[in-house]
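A sample copied in:

***
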Amino acid sequence: MLIEHIHRAKNERLREKLLADQQEARRLKNKQLRMARLARRAAKDGMVDVAPIKKVTKPATKSNKPATKPAAKKTQRARK
């Protein structure tokens, strides 16, 4: 029973972290889209001093997925 609780708690923490990362990525993407939209609108209205939009990327994080080995290729033996 205790082991099951530990596994459930660990999975819940991982799921919450994954959802938080997804929310952060979505917010960042929406912010970039909003800034690009404002820049296009300002350029259309004739404002020349619009700063170029830099694409901000999220720093690479270590994946929670375990590394998998590629499957070994099966070879057929010659039958005698």
In short: The longest helix spans residues 2-45. Residues 1-59 form one domain. The mean pLDDT is 81. The chain is about 55% helix and 0% strand.
